[in-house]
């Protein structure tokens, strides 16, 4: 048990519904950011999750992003672009033709 002052936080429940009302996705967010409205926080979380999913995809394709030793943001961006294009090219070649 850790004693201390309580943390002020709010629960944000975000749902994505289909046109017929079917629940497609649901997130439960706990945030201590009070100065931003709940829809903006849900959108930020959505984008953050998209980034996490992209990095997971890159790692599964053999690109260990954490071990890259780049010295600048531009160098990271260039290497990430090349790695992304390599993945897209391989997936395009491997995809079944229709």
From TrEMBL:
Gene3D superfamilies the record matches: Transposase Inhibitor Protein From Tn5, Chain A, domain 1 (3.90.350.10)
InterPro entries in UniProt: RNaseH-like_sf
PANTHER family linked to this entry: TRANSPOSASE INSL FOR INSERTION SEQUENCE ELEMENT IS186A-RELATED
Name assigned to this protein: Transposase IS4-like domain-containing protein
Species: Thiothrix fructosivorans
Taxonomy of the source species: Bacteria, Pseudomonadati, Pseudomonadota, Gammaproteobacteria, Thiotrichales
